[in-house]
Each structure stands twice: as structure tokens, then as C-alpha cells.
Amino acid sequence: MGSSSAAPNLEDVPSMDLMTELLRRFKCSAKPDKRLILIGPPGSGKGTQSPIIKDEYCLCHLATGDMLRAAVAAKTPLGIKAKEAMEKGELVSDDLVVGIIDEAMKKPSCQKGFILDGFPRTVVQAQKLDQMLEKQGLKVDKVLNFAIDDSILEERITGRWIHPSSGRSYHTKFAPPKVSGVDDVTGEPLIQRKDDTAAVLKSRLDAFHKQTEPVIDYYTKKGIVANLHAEKPPKEVTVEVEKVLSS
Length: 247
Hints:
CATH class of the domain at 26-150 and 206-244: Alpha Beta
Subunit structure: Monomer.
GO molecular function, one term: ATP binding
Family: Belongs to the adenylate kinase family.
Protein name: adenylate kinase
Shape: globular
Oligomer: single chain
Low-confidence stretches: none
Strand order of the largest sheet: 2-3-1-4-7
CATH superfamily of the domain at 26-150 and 206-244: P-loop containing nucleotide triphosphate hydrolases
Largest sheet: 5 strands, parallel
Strand content: 5-15%
Number of strands: 7
Structural class: alpha/beta
EC number: 2.7.4.3
């Protein structure tokens, strides 16, 4: 059992893959370290930008929800604790989540830094994260705030329609189907995700503002928040991000 999760035997890895990885590491070694936090409401475009930033700066992407699930599945000591909490229907404690981030940061892929997404959601979490990094002589370099007006988000999200069997997505305003309400290819009806309705969005946004505004204030006082114009087209947001991170 033990060896199945180990790294593959390098003799078996195709030369092209080895060369590509070596070149990537070589290119990465010249990049400055970056520890970034992405904050933004649902639909603000964080998911579009984070893979671009990750590749450009050779960072690892730490999505706390995925990391918790992975720790539980791998039965790490922290994962076992997290599972106990979840089974009791309790929230996983901040200390546990920070511990899992701490563990993840030791991976080779996180050598140049990380992108944290979905955490911290509260000021207490932000303080605990800072303390953990401080112990290692590190700090958060930049907080990218995907600032966007609620009304724009509402238009973006409530306009989304999906063709369930293929996953093709449409938008009533930005990418409408040829015939309203039906898939271009099959002619089958489109559906709207439960999360994409105005009522659900409003409650998610209310929670986001209540929880997250104080976190943005906390980091603003440290002088590390960059406010992005997240309503712009993705390519323009990417340019903004690059400006912020190269300064």
C-alpha cells in the first residue's frame, strides 16, 4: 500500500515530460516568491484568473474546501480531526484549516508561494493565518480583491443557462442560444442551476459582504490590498493583475 502513492519511478517518465518539468522549474526559479489571497463574491472571475496567475508565477493553488476533503480522504491526523467535526455537523475549526494550509505549503509545488482561495473568510482566520506564516518568517504579499457591483453579478449569474447532458453553457445576454431556452446542438431544453437564481445569489452575496468586508479592511490597514475592476472583460482583468503583481 505504502508505495502506491509515492512519486513515479523517474526511469519510467518519458524524457519529454522530464525536460518540460525541468524547464518549468528553471523558469520558475527566477520568479519572485508570492503569497496571494484572492477575495471576491461568486461570479467575480476569481476562478478564471487563478490558473493564469498560478502558471505565470509558479504558485500552488490552495482551495481550502478541496484540501479539507483531500486530508479527510488521506486520513492525515488533521484529516481525521476534520472528519470527526464534520460528522458531528460542526464547522471545522480555524486552527485545523490553518494547520492543513501549513501542511500543504511544504509541498515542492508550493515552493514559490501560493494562491489562497476561499480563506480567510473572517478576521480571526486572517489573524491565525498571519501568525502561522510569521512563525516561518513569511507573510501574505498581496490580497487581490475582485471588486464588482452586486447588480453586475446578478446579471452575470442569473443569465446563465446550462444544457445538462453536455455541460454547454449559455448566457441570455452575453452568449445566448440561437433559439431562446434550447441547446444549439440538440434542441433540448436548457436549465438554470439552483445556485444561479436571484434569490440564492442575494443570500450568498449578503453573507459574503457581511463576512468579508472586515477581512478586506484588515488587509487594507496592512497596505497589501489591490482592488481589481472585476466587471471588466477577463483579458483586461488579467492585465490589471499582472500590473499589480509586477510592482
